[in-house]
Design goal:
By secondary structure, the protein is of the alpha/beta class. Helices cover about 45% and strands about 15% of the residues. It is globular. The structure holds pyridoxal-5'-phosphate.
């Protein structure tokens, strides 16, 4: 005789009921989160960009996952203390290190809505509206860079994953097989982002030959050197395949000469990938559009809305000029998806990316773009370019200071040249002092054996007052290093 399962099932339903808070509980939870967000925004302009402390979230270890519930108040407090108060504050306008991010509030609201409804954005049949929204955003980006109707793309989690997808599409488009890898040649600037090297290795091409091209005095690829190297490689019986140009390098903000590189790529049938993770969206403003001419000549592009569209982390886009290549590398069919194959008005993210079930990332971009309109984005991007020019000027006027080349976009470099002693040691000491101060966060780099301190103005909360604050902090910390010797 079969046992009656009903009492046990109802019992379990009761035990898990707290997973579905009622309306009053939802309001109270949301009010607490709202309080957290209000507190966060209240002092966002004055709070340090970097917390130099020993406590690095270790308090979290004292609160392991357990059977019993905890209060939201207590958990929010843990986030404040253990997560928000150590290391970098990436939402701060004072974040001018690496490539800063943003954190648009309205994008957070988009995420909130996407998560509440848990819309499915993987396959058109299941989520036609969600998929259409994502495709519409990708089409908008394709128009921005000048790709035609055959283009397609994907909203990935970030620029690194987007780059991997581009490299895989390029590999398959050229029908590279394992036996070809050792004589396949890739052309890069030494300034290419390390995620390109990672993508090449993950795509199985770790054995390919990588040529680091010589650069001009502004750290841009010399197209003639590319042409000569490709000719030499063909002569040697090798297989030139991929050239990666960067539209806004991470280190120096340099934009490689895209039209001239594209010409070499066209002549020799190379796949041209443009890494515009940082720089791409500057095409929205006049100052940037001028510098970014030639984006449309590439075969694939990566651009990061979580950088230059100021979104919270979690969105990097890949675009491929000829969609067939992205599809060929990523499309798959499975018998349990047979219903889905009937609805084909729109191409599905699942056919263009390694993902099946995915976060509905479109809403976090669509909502702010349509809600605010494009004008404030264009203005903020122009503002960043002008702020960087201003800061580069002002730093150049400070005694003892050497500045790098005039910024093409919104990254610049400088260093102190001491009258005596080792300049690198001085600037590293200074960097340490800058991090200890934390008012504004900067990072350093090593170029041709020289230590440079970088400024990257990308956060939408960075304004004229922030730049003034940064300049004051720099003088304050430099004096400290000079006095301490
Ligand atoms: C940030 C960046 C990347 C990597 O993108 P993630 O979103 O950090 O994965 C690639 N290339 C350039 C030029 C970048 O600035």
């Amino acid at each position: 005789m079969s046992q009656d399962l009903t009492p046990r099932i109802l019992d379990l339903q009761q035990l898990s009921a707290s997973l579905e808070p009622d309306e009053a509980t939802r309001h109270s939870l949301l009010a607490q989160v709202e309080q957290y967000s209000d507190d966060f925004y209240r002092d966002i302009t004055t709070r340090k960009a970097f917390h130099f402390n020993e406590q690095r979230g270790e308090g979290l270890l004292r609160h392991p996952v357990r059977e019993e519930p905890r209060s939201l108040d207590q958990l929010i407090e843990l986030v404040r203390e253990q997560v928000d108060s150590s290391g970098l504050n990436p939402a701060s306008g004072g974040h001018m290190g690496y490539i800063p991010g943003g954190g648009l509030y309205t994008s957070a609201l988009g995420d909130y809505m996407a998560d509440v409804a848990n819309n499915y954005a993987g396959v058109f049949f299941a989520g036609p509206g969600a998929v259409r929204m994502e495709n519409l955003l990708l089409r908008w980006m394709a128009d921005l860079v000048g790709y035609g109707p055959e283009a397609a793309g994907n909203l990935a989690s970030g620029g690194s994953v987007a780059s991997l997808m581009a490299v895989v599409a390029a590999r398959d488009a050229h029908q590279l097989k394992a036996r070809d890898f050792e004589r396949t040649v890739i052309y890069l600037s030494a300034q290419a982002h390390h995620c390109i090297h990672k993508a090449i290795r993950i795509a199985g091409l770790g054995e390919a030959i990588v040529r680091h091209l010589p650069l001009d005095e502004r750290y841009r690829i010399l197209p003639d050197a590319l042409a000569q190297q490709v000719a030499a490689d063909l002569e040697a019986g090798l297989r030139p395949w991929l050239v990666v140009a960067t539209a806004g390098t991470t280190d120096t903000g340099a934009v490689d000469p895209l039209p001239a590189i594209a010409e070499v790529a066209r002549r020799h049938n190379l796949w041209l990938h443009v890494d515009a993770a940082y720089g791409g969206f500057f095409a929205l403003c006049d100052e940037g559009r001028e510098v970014l001419k030639g984006l449309e000549l590439s075969d694939s592009i990566v651009m990061d809305p979580h950088k230059t569209l100021f979104l919270p982390y979690g969105l990097g886009a890949v675009l491929v000029k000829d969609r067939r290549h992205l599809i060929a590398s990523h499309h798959y069919t499975a018998s349990y998806l047979q219903d889905a194959e009937k609805a084909t008005d729109e191409i599905s993210p699942a056919d263009l990316s390694p993902e099946l079930t995915k976060h509905f990332r479109g809403l976090r971009l669509w909502l702010p773009l349509l809600l605010h309109g494009l004008a404030p984005f264009r203005a903020a991007l122009s503002e960043k370019i002008l702020l960087c020019r201003l800061m580069h000027q002002r730093l150049g006027e400070m005694p003892g200071m050497e500045v790098g080349p005039p910024p093409q976009l919104s990254v610049a470099m400088f260093r102190h040249v001491p009258s005596t002693g080792d300049a690198n040691a001085f600037n590293l000491r200074w960097m340490e002092e800058i991090h200890r101060d934390g008012d504004v966060f900067l990072s350093s780099t090593l170029l041709d054996g020289m230590v440079w301190i970088r400024i990257a103005i990308v956060a939408y909360r960075t304004h004229l007052a922030t730049v003034e604050r940064a300049l004051e902090m720099l003088e304050r910390t430099r004096q400290r290093v000079l006095q301490l010797g």
